[in-house]
């Protein structure tokens, strides 16, 4: 039993600490091929804009998206809540020019005002405790005209087709004796029940919250390129799992004249 001072963010930090060692083995987290990294680069560039150079990456994990951003020529400042992730990302990108990685909170970045061309996150927003505070902070650190790029999804509600694909994938894995990285589903579900988006993250309500924070110029799409790259060459059991959740990329801008 956790003590009274053990907060939800402490639970989140502890959960991702345990996941850090095998994080890159999970499909959709680790990028296994150059093709997948190239697909993410094309998607991010389309949403960030061709001139985006100074990027704040939030919840960088082991630095997979970080690698993509560096390959695009960006200067990256990264914040992550988990020291175990930070250590792995620093080891992965030791000596990389234009990279700064720190422990930090995505809801209160403490980064300078009007500083970044883009704020980028993948698989973060569904875990936010106070997304409204986070979005106000992201607006603050962006320069006018800068963009937020959110790659995320609804990891609560699954369609009937998605459930069937997941069941078939699990059946194939059991038949083939395949094992994946250990995931503490009880801890995952306990966190999911407490976060703001406990009923699932969908683009429409997310957009309304971002609009309330002052953002405009919204762009929305599914990550079809990265999904196609994940399927390429993967065994059937893994192909079946790609794209079953309502994954999306949503981006928006701080208005160019925004104060």
From TrEMBL:
Pfam families: Methyltransf_11. SUPFAM superfamilies: S-adenosyl-L-methionine-dependent methyltransferases. InterPro entries: Methyltransf_11, Methyltransf_Superfamily, SAM-dependent_MTases_sf. One of its GO terms (molecular function) is methyltransferase activity. The keyword Transferase applies. GO terms for biological process: methylation. Keywords: Methyltransferase, Transferase. This is Class I SAM-dependent methyltransferase.
């Amino acid at each position: 039993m956790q003590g009274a001072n053990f907060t939800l963010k402490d639970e989140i930090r502890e959960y991702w600490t345990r996941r850090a060692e095998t994080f890159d083995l999970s499909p959709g987290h680790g990028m296994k091929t150059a093709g997948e990294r190239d697909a993410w680069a094309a998607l991010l560039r389309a949403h960030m804009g061709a001139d985006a150079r100074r990027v704040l990456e939030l919840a960088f994990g082991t630095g997979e998206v970080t690698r993509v951003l560096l390959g695009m020529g960006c200067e990256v400042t990264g914040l992550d809540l988990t020291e175990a992730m930070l250590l792995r990302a620093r080891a992965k990108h030791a000596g990389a020019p234009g990279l700064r990685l720190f422990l930090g909170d995505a809801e209160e970045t403490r980064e300078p005002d009007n500083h970044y061309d883009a704020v980028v996150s993948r698989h973060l927003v569904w875990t936010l405790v106070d997304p409204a505070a986070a979005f106000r902070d992201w607006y603050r650190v962006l320069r006018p005209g800068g963009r937020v790029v959110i790659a995320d999804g609804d990891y609560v509600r699954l369609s009937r087709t998605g459930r069937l694909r997941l069941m078939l994938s699990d059946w194939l894995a059991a038949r083939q004796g395949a094992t994946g990285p250990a995931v503490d589903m009880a801890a995952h579900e306990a966190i999911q029940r407490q976060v703001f988006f406990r009923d699932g993250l969908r683009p429409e309500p997310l957009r309304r919250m971002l609009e309330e924070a002052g953002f405009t110029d919204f762009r929305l799409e599914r990550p079809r390129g990265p999904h196609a790259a994940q399927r390429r060459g993967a065994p059937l059991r893994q192909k079946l799992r790609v794209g079953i959740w309502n994954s999306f990329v949503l981006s928006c801008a701080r208005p160019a004249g925004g104060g």
